[in-house]
């Protein structure tokens, strides 16, 4: 089986899985020499390349997994066109998240943030691609909770840096609201299981969640395991409404804290503070496949800080 992974340098794309066969979501450096001998990497400008440029790369490929983000998301359609031409059997559009509709106070309409909208508009054509509707190709769409181990997101996931002398968690709305969280390594392991069991993942949207906890609980756990001060800064829900009207009103202390737009960060936190960042139990598919570890947030934090009190 040959797998093509698009976007292996991102926070999702470089997540690792300990089982060596197969290992589609990992960086080249984490492979054994034997695995590296079977790995081929290619650099390509997906935004500006043509479908014809992609055909030689996807020839003899069985599965395409997209972990693209940003402007490259728009390239998924031509990647799938090339994949259909070369006979790829399974396509994984880039998802790995949860979308929400923001409803302004007192309004009957809803709004979708451009970050979520870009995922939606890039995914829909993939799911309705002629190769899918004809049965030539199948798809698997993988969704998740909030990815809680993103070291690049210093405001989003401050606990990923165990060297800080203290921690501040910025919360919008109710700090006791439950939130679905997902660890990227377990998400990668879940994807591996969907590959191992193609009959269970064929033409399916599957959601993987590690834990469902609140920021108040995370603050308590972080304080307990790090032995350091953990401060909670709780913004009222009105901050979300204000920022959605005026992006410039994002509080100064949470600006430029990561790779996502500041207003998107506020929106996600606001949806979480409303208690809407939790999927119904019937829409979580952890139990469909065996062999997937589930790192709880508590165990993750304990391991990160060495169990110190």
Model description:
The longest helix is centred in the middle third of the chain and has 14 residues. This protein has a 5-stranded parallel beta sheet, with helices on both faces. Helices cover 32% and strands 15% of the residues. It is globular. The protein has a single domain, classed as NAD(P)-binding Rossmann-like Domain (Rossmann fold, 3-Layer(aba) Sandwich). It contains 11 helices and 10 strands. Helix 3 links the parallel strand 2 and strand 3. It is α/β, with parallel strands linked by helices.
List keywords for this structure.
five-stranded parallel sheet; alpha/beta; NAD(P)-binding protein; NAD(P)-bd_dom_sf; 32% helix; NmrA-like; oxidoreductase activity; 15% strand; Rossmann fold; NmrA/Isoflavone_reductase-like; single chain; 11 helices
Q: Can I get a quick summary?
A:
By secondary structure, this protein is α/β, with parallel strands linked by helices.
Which SSEs are present, and which pair or pack?
Elements lengths: L2 E4 L26 H4 L14 H8 L4 E4 L9 H11 L3 E3 L21 H14 L2 H4 L4 E7 L1 E2 L18 E7 L6 E4 L1 H13 L1 H4 L2 E5 L2 E3 L1 H12 L2 E7 L2 H8 L16 H12 L23 H8 L5
Parallel strand pairs: 1-2, 2-3, 3-4, 4-8, 5-7, 6-10
Antiparallel strand pairs: 7-9
Helix pairs in contact: 2-3, 8-11, 9-10
What can be said about the biggest beta sheet? 5 strands, parallel
CATH superfamily: NAD(P)-binding Rossmann-like Domain
Q: Give the proportion of residues in helices.
A: 25-40%
Q: Number of folding domains?
A: 1
Low-confidence stretches: 16-28
State the distance separating the first and last CA atoms: 47 Å
**Neighbour order of strands in the largest sheet:** 1-2-3-4-8
CATH topology-level fold name: Rossmann fold
Assigned CATH class = Alpha Beta
What is the rounded Rg?
A: 20 Å
Q: H/E series, N to C?
A: EHHEHEHHEEEEHHEEHEHHH
Structural class of the helices, strands and pairings? alpha/beta
The number of helical segments is: 11
Oligomer class: single chain
Task: Look at the structure and give the mean pLDDT.
Answer: 90
Q: β content, as a range?
A: 5-15%
CATH architecture annotation: 3-Layer(aba) Sandwich
Shape: globular
The overall strand count is 10
């Amino acid at each position: 089986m040959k797998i093509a992974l698009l976007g292996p340098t991102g926070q999702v794309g470089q997540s690792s899985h300990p089982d060596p066969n197969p290992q589609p979501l990992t960086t080249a450096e984490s492979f054994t020499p034997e695995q590296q001998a079977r790995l081929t990497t290619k650099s390509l400008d997906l935004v500006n390349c043509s479908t014809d440029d992609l055909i030689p790369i996807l020839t003899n490929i069985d599965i395409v997994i997209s972990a693209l983000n940003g402007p490259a998301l728009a390239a998924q359609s031509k990647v799938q066109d090339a994949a259909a031409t070369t006979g790829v059997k399974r396509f994984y559009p880039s998802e790995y998240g949860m979308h929400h509709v923001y409803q302004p106070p007192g309004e009957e309409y809803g709004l979708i943030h451009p970050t979520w909208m870009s995922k939606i508009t890039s995914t829909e054509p993939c799911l309705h691609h002629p190769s899918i509707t004809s049965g030539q190709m199948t798809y698997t769409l993988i969704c998740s909770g909030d990815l809680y181990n993103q070291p690049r997101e210093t405001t989003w996931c401050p606990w990923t840096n165990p060297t800080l002398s203290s921690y501040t968690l910025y919360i919008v709305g109710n700090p006791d609201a439950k939130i679905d969280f997902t660890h990227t390594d377990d998400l990668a392991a879940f994807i591996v299981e969907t590959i191992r069991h193609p009959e269970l993942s064929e033409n399916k949207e599957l959601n993987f969640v590690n834990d469902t906890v609140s920021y108040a609980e995370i603050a308590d756990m972080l304080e307990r395991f790090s032995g350091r001060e953990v401060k909670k800064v709780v913004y009222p829900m009105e901050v979300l409404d204000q920022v959605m009207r005026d992006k410039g009103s994002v509080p100064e202390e949470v600006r430029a804290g990561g790779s996502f737009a500041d207003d998107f960060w506020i929106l996600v936190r606001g949806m979480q503070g409303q208690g809407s960042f939790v999927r119904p139990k019937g829409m979580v598919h952890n139990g469909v496949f065996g062999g997937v570890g589930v790192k709880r947030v508590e165990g993750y934090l304990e391991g990160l800080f060495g169990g110190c009190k």
